[in-house]
Amino acid sequence: MCGIAGFIMRSGLRPEPELLQRMSAQLGHRGPDDQGIHCSGPVGLAQTRLSIIGLATGHQPMVAEDGQLALAANGEVYNYVELNAALRQHGREARTQSDSETILNAYAVHGLDSLPLLRGMYAFALHDARRGTLILGRDRLGIKPLFYTRLADRIAFASEIKALLAILPQRPEILPRALRQFLQNQFASGEDTLIAGVRRVPAGEALIIDGALRIQRHCYWSALTVTPREVAVDEAQAELDGLMNTAMREHMRADVPFGLFLSGGVDSAVLAAMLHAHGAGRIKSFSVGYKGTAMTHELDEAARVARHFGLDHTPLELSLDQVFGRIPHSIWCADELMRDYACLPTSLLAETAGAELKVVFSGEGGDEVFAGYGRYHPRPAERWVKALIHPGSGGFRTRGQWGARWLRRLLGPDLRAAANADRQPVLRAWGATPASWSDMQRRQYTDLVTALPDNLLVKTDRMLMGFGLEGRVPFLDHRIVEFGLSLPDDLKVRRHRGKWLLKRWAEPRLPPGHLDRPKRGFHVPVGDWLRGEIADQVGQRLMRNRGIRGWFHADAIPDLIAARQRGQGGGRELFGLMQLAIWHRLFIEQPGLKPAPDENPLDWIE
């Protein structure tokens, strides 16, 4: 796991090493073990390294023996052992033990046809000097981030937006439609980010950039190619068993110890079972809960799973002050605004685990792949009404995060003008799906290309990498994703209970009674914190905040606070405004400013 950055200059220009160093300095948390830069022709590459495989020989950027290819990569290619053996048959011998070199060698032999051969989580920049191109590639599910922006004389890229802001010649500007998406969807989705002109490299694609700064898109994978099928339960269960075992064997490849984030839920318990079955031994595990809340029960259940599999377990029982002291730092880590409250305890877990380890396993993706969310199987009447009100969406994700009252009262003219933006990601995804798919498959796909890469995986990557910790997510092995998406609905949901096949397969592997527990989300007690005097103080500061006054009618904020204090809602709206105010300071007003992990969020609003 690493951080990468760099740029390709317009023909005739040469990269400036000092700018590469400036970008690299913003990514030191992603790669505390090593750093390097490489300049050749119009291309400059920078990398900060967290060494996990090939510890002594994996320095980057990597350059091919003939000097014609150079690579800066982030992430892991899990099947590098098998690919290296195949490449040897083509006369391409690996010079290091690093899995990243496999990307370089595979491209040297197969060109862009090498991309479907890679299995893993990765983002990379590869300079092909013979062709005069820079290739920016990203893994199939968007597990690893990669951003780019077009400037007057170059196209620059980086693992995180903050590295791009370090070389922008002007003050960053907010993109109204992306801000509107954050408010209503809790994250901005698609290729746009909140910073105008900064874009995401799409998951499953490579961008080929030439010396004239023209961009050609190359899509090497899409879940839209998955074909629905009918399959018997026993056959599906046997197939799942093979896929899970293969994925776990590959994901366990590392030259450093690894651990596990363990909740009280099914997905992380499955990972604990698989790690145990594959001989991981007494690895470290970590769980989180809150004093005096229902989440204490999650700690108890996680501890039971840890005892069952003989894990070296660390529970974190947090106070509200600990959790909400994470707000400024978690916003800095995330780069992108998203109202996923689970970022806060995840940050504390990452700091604790990162003090001892470089790698943890995490259960992200299980709900999307095996239809674990209740929203994938709504009752028919509810689905019909929502689809009627919101045509073209199948009634999926139709409810905005903000109440209509506060949209009318608070939004300024630029955000009002972007009124249709929040629905577009869902409509685009839903409309792209094949006619042969069921509505459940459409719901899964829509989340796989919106909420998963642009919210859930942002949390996993950025909160962990903020403390130099790599998160591995075996449920998002693309073969498992294709398998889960292809299954008939009745193998995913029965009697309104999701993940039916996964649970049936997992039951004999888990502690007795574990599957009888009701599904719980990763709850964060925001309502217990953002009320009373704290809510009043937040409101007073928001009214004076430059970022808020530029986009909202600040004179309506006292009414929002009053409603909050009366218990009449307003919590999501208030928390979102607070996040925006802090983010605006960190990424618009003072890029380069970095909060400590524990700070009073009120101090960052003004």
From TrEMBL:
Keywords: Amino-acid biosynthesis, Asparagine biosynthesis, ATP-binding, Glutamine amidotransferase, Ligase, Nucleotide-binding. GO terms for biological process: asparagine biosynthetic process. Pfam families: Asn_synthase, GATase_7. Gene3D superfamilies: Glutamine Phosphoribosylpyrophosphate, subunit 1, domain 1, HUPs. It catalyses: L-aspartate + L-glutamine + ATP + H2O = L-asparagine + L-glutamate + AMP + diphosphate + H(+). The record marks E364 as: Important for beta-aspartyl-AMP intermediate formation. CDD domains: Asn_synthase_B_C, AsnB. InterPro entries: Asn_synth_AEB, Asn_synthase, ASN_synthetase/amidase, AsnB_N, GATase_2_dom, Ntn_hydrolases_N, Rossmann-like_a/b/a_fold. The keyword Transit peptide does not apply. One of its GO terms (molecular function) is asparagine synthase (glutamine-hydrolyzing) activity. Pathway: Amino-acid biosynthesis; L-asparagine biosynthesis; L-asparagine from L-aspartate (L-Gln route): step 1/1. Its EC number is 6.3.5.4. GO terms for cellular component: cytosol. ATP binds at V288, S362, G363. It comes from the Bacteria. Residues 2-212 form the Glutamine amidotransferase type-2 domain. L-glutamine binds at D99. Signal peptide: none annotated. It is an enzyme of class 6 (ligase). The active site is at C2. PANTHER family: ASPARAGINE SYNTHETASE, ASPARAGINE SYNTHETASE (GLUTAMINE-HYDROLYZING). Belongs to the asparagine synthetase family. This is asparagine synthase (glutamine-hydrolyzing). It comes from Thiorhodococcus minor.
